[in-house]
Amino acid sequence: MADEKLTRIYIMGKAYDVPVGVTIMDAMEYAGYRFIRGAGCRSGFCGACGTVYRKAGEYRLEFVLACQEMVEEGMHLTQLPFTPAPRADYALDDLDPSENVLLQHYPEIARCVSCNTCTKACPQEIEVMDYVQAALRGDVARVAELSFDCIACGLCAMRCPADIKHYHVAQMARRLHSVAGSPTPEHLGARMNELDAGAFDDELDGLASMTLDELKAKYAQRVIEKAQEPATEEVAT
Amino acid sequence: MSGLAYFPGCSLKDDAKRYEDAALFVMERLGAPLEELPKWTCCGTVYSLADDDLMHHVASVRNLVRTQETGADELVTLCAMCFNTLSRVAERVGADEEERTKINAFMDREPDYEGGIRVRHLLQVLRDTVGWESLSAATVRPLDGVNVAAYYGCTLVRPKEIGIDDSERPIVMADVVEAVGATPVAFPFEAECCGTYQIVDEPHLALEQSSRILRSALRAGADVVATACPLCQHNLERAAETLGADAEGIHVVYFTELLAAALGADEARLTPVVRALVAQAATAEGGA
Question: What is the pTM of this model?
Fold first, then answer.
């Protein structure tokens, strides 16, 4: 490790020399941080590690996921692992889809002035402002479509001058869309029937009655499926 | 883009859907189809009058950028409020390079607005691009004997720098309905305010104002009041409900609904009110 190439970054204002070519998350751990919150899947899917940084000489604040972004010389960064943004209370089945229920549950979306700051804060490159505008006019399908890649990191809501909770609005839209706007997949119905018929009840009861040690032993002995070989193209003979 | 770049606005996708549906049909018939911008945001709703409040013009400017991206140099609107906001911003930001630079700097990593987009209301397109002759020629179901009070409200005609017609005595909508066979009736409240957003907090103010407009149209012998604004339409409809028997016999419709009926829209797509007007016209024509 002695000849490892290092670069200087600043975590919450304190300078650290960290290895070149590692993610922000790895660099923070290298610097001695231990994540209790603010780290989850480490694969860019869970949205737990929202991070903001500025580079020396840059006026812009940048928004990334710590597990996905490589460190760069001169980054001044901090994590924003949680966004205080209470979610509206609703039961999907009780909603009247003919009304603009997004606006009813999140009336603050009407405060949007189209500044586009949310879009610029999205590490997933989602057109956040455009889906908020679609929500404003009750276009649930468009909100669901545009927000599909949202991982609910909350950076949009943290940044919004109108205090909109974008990702909650989008989640509600996707739920509404899944009930009213998209077909129910056949395999899901089949599996639900299996569950109702009690196909897995014995197996679950068995697990529930095991002691912690028995469970640990069972977990250690679990069979891990091998990755499938990539399908080879059939050659016509 | 083959048709006219078109900005709907939020109401046109919701309460005022029939205003848009009728307009799309009419322009398709007239060979100048409206083509909705692929992406658009709120128009900005209310034009900010503060000198240094550029931030509140960003929504409008962004829609002008979306227009620019389609290659069009004109943007057509239906909602009178959107027309007002967008055209005032287009005028202001188009004429002032310094303001444009500030807004572009704020939008930062987005495409710059270069200026030069002109915002037009559909009534202007019908008058200046389509023309009365083409409109008459396309009419298959003339609205003979239907007396129409063309109501403009404020935002189409004021301030006069962006007004689509004379700000006190506009005639463009009267000419439009005349071109499809209807009889425009003059009434003195054509460009009075409907009461606008007072309908939310002080509904009696808006209803009083709108009732005055309706009564004036009734006295002038109108069968129907034609509007070009979702908010005016809403307030006048509410006023008609409130007046009850006193407003009997008068209806409020979007001017595009009358045009769609005259240009042969499927009867099933017309509202009962417009169907009744068509029936009235057919009787008048038969009797003539």
Answer: 0.86
